[in-house]
Amino acid sequence: MLEEASQAIEAFRAGFPMAFLAVVPVIFMVMSPIAVVDAAHEFTVYRMQQYDLQGNSYGCRSSLVNAEARTIHSSSYARKCVLIRSSELTHTKYLEVVDGGPSAIVVLLCGNMSNGQIQNFIEMENELLSTDSSIPVYFANEDQELNNVYDRVTHSTKVESSSALQAMVDAATSVGYQLVTVGAASKSMPDHSIVNIEGFLPGLGIEDQLPTVAVVAHSDSFGVAPYLSYGANSDASGVVVLLELARVLGKLYRNSRTHPKHNVLFLLSGGGKFNYQGTRRWIEEALDNSASSSIDNPSSALLSSASLVLCLEGLALDGTNSLRMHVSKPPAKGTVADALYKNIEKFGGGDVDVSLVHKKIRLSSDSLAWEHERFSIRRLPAVTLSSFENHDHPIRRSIMDRKDKISMETLVKNTAIITESLVSYLYNTTDDNMLNFVSGDYGIQKERMQTWMDFLVASPRPAQALHVDHPVVTALEAELNKHTKGVHKQAFKADKRDPDFMFYDGLVLQMSASIVRSAAFDLYMTGAVAAYLAVIYFLVLKFNGVLSIAKKFNSLPKVKVQ
Amino acid sequence: MTFVHFVNCMALAYAPYVVTYKSSILSEYNTLMKIAFAGIIYMLTQLGKMLTLATFFPTLEPSQPGNINVISEMLKTTVDLADLAGIYFIINRTIGKPELKVLISGVGWSGAQVLFSHILSFWFGARGLEFSWKYIQMAIDANITLVHVIAISALVWIWTRNDLNRSLLPMVTTLLLLSVYRDLIVEIIVQSFALNPWILLLIKGVFTFSVAFLSLQFYLGLVEAS
């Protein structure tokens, strides 16, 4: 063999240039194009939250997955990627799985979960967010192919083999799935900015000397997986109410006959779910501005003279008929908050259940309960209007806070009450039928609110996504610009040396599920191939025998003899 | 899959060629160069076929899976008749015993074919993460190709013989044509009955072995007589 090879090489060397030129291009042309591998099943996975806030780390710390799939019905999870259906998932189950030492967890979100299961899931979600997880946790929307993967994995890993033979057969025939994420490990995003959008309506007279009312809602959403959180109730509903207020008030302020002697500030804050970072920054800037003489940002400077800050959140809660005013300390008689509360009671008392909820600020706590507490800390009079009875309602931080869980009727009703109460306060009137809020230009436009709600919940709005040029941000800015003055975006980053907050990327990834076989399968295959080759070897070696057998069948006419 | 899987596929596909070479008269007569020559003729023939296809059938649409365009596939397969010319050329240029001629052209031709059309698929596919039976099937197909091309070579050799009984010539010609159109025929059968790849392989195998058996009979008849 070696000699022959060297002869061949010698022959090539002798006629090198010609042979080379003739053969090499031909080899390239004749080689068939590379057959692309059958695409493995690919699906989108959404990673669990990962962020640092005020020096603490939250969520899952890693993002890379390369492990074989198991389900919760499998016997062991060690160093495997565990698939769990959201309908089967509870917090105890989750802890049980984590104890098994898996390398990753993928939760399949079922489309049809019962109310009880959703309740369980929401509670589990909040538990999950409160604990630090070192393994990657992913969420994926269930589809037919993923269901197939799940069923096959369950089938092939569940059965305990009864006999040794059965075990050998199982090892050879079992089909596994290798789950691999495409992409690099998650990195921090130190340059990610949080965006506030503000606008204002100057009152009649000298702005600086007029009382100011600020209306605030945060625009971001939150959930266990950022890119699955739509935040319909918390806080798309607040944003929609704010936009409607801006429209009605904008109309009133433009007419010189109905120009009230109050300034109104509007703020759509960013990073609201991260301890109200946007609001905090905005207050700091506003108070700094009012202190310094050089005022480059007149609108927010008005904040220091605010008579009331009105925060809006969760105003479309389905199945409740109540509007609550959350305060950090009960409003004293004669304050604006008190006046507004009386108005709300007056206008909404018949329809809805209006009540005052008092909750002291817990400074020892890691996070603030409500957005108004940011203002209350700075001794600004602030309240939050919400349908939520208390701040730890789990849906406020859940991916289940979706469009189908809100009620537009409630939202419209609440908007009417709030608008009416606020307008009534601005004009300091007690006349019940001062403005017609049912129809006409000043009426609440249900279609418009519906359109805005649809737009806001059409795509996830986590703080990690809402950068300066995000479509939602630009649309909100354009809309505020239509109705108010001095609209501008305030984008800010975390401090480089001592960041208050830090986000991480790699929150949406592609995961591929490839069919794999066990090592035993390879072994058996090698055995089969070797046996086959042995048969071929003997057939070729004893080809004369084969020929003699073949001859017996030979009945064809013989060759003519010449 | 694993590297072992790749090795398995390679062994299944190429070891029969090595076995055939080592344990037949090919190694006794030291014919490696001639086999390499047959391989080069294979390449040149394929090049010629490609140029012909590109020149004369430029607008033929590739047929979609599940719906093959029989006429265009027929025309394309007709170009494969050039393979017969290539094999004829190799047999003509080889001096020696008839079985040597047939084996050199058969092993050289099919070896080159299998080498060029499968090795990259094995390298990129069988080593990939995803397991697929496709590569095992490809490897078995390589075995069938060996028998197929040896049978064609035998038929071509028989066809060139003057001492062949004239009454057998139409049968030999029919068998040659059947061999050339084998892939198309099998494809049509599989498409019309929506069969899976394993059945396709089985039909191919049965078809090839039937043709091979018949050509062996003709060959033996001729060799015995001379």
From TrEMBL, chain A:
Coarse class of the primary localization is endoplasmic reticulum
Q: Does the keyword NAD apply?
A: no
Q: Where are the transmembrane segments?
A: 20-40, 527-550
Which InterPro entries would you find in this protein's record?
Nicalin, Peptidase_M28
Instruction: List where in the cell it is found.
Output: Endoplasmic reticulum membrane
Q: Where is the Peptidase M28 domain?
A: 212-387
Q: How does it sit in the membrane?
A: Single-pass membrane protein
Arranged from A to Z, the UniProt key words for this protein are:
Endoplasmic reticulum, Glycoprotein, Membrane, Signal, Transmembrane, Transmembrane helix
Keyword Transmembrane annotated:
yes
The record's section on PANTHER family has: NICALIN (PTHR31826)
Give the family, as the similarity comment puts it.
Belongs to the nicastrin family.
Can you say what this protein is called? BOS complex subunit NCLN
From TrEMBL, chain B:
The cross-references to InterPro entries, in alphabetical order and at most eight, read: TMEM147
Keyword Endoplasmic reticulum recorded = yes
Q: How does it sit in the membrane?
A: Multi-pass membrane protein
Q: Which residues fall in a coiled-coil region?
A: none
Note whether Ion transport occurs among the keywords: no
Top-rank lineage group of the source organism: Eukaryota
| UniProt keyword list | Cell membrane, Endoplasmic reticulum, Membrane, Transmembrane, Transmembrane helix
Segments passing through the bilayer: 35-57, 102-126, 138-160, 166-186, 198-220
- Family label: Belongs to the TMEM147 family.
Q: What is this protein called?
A: BOS complex subunit TMEM147
Its lineage reads: Eukaryota, Metazoa, Chordata, Tunicata, Ascidiacea
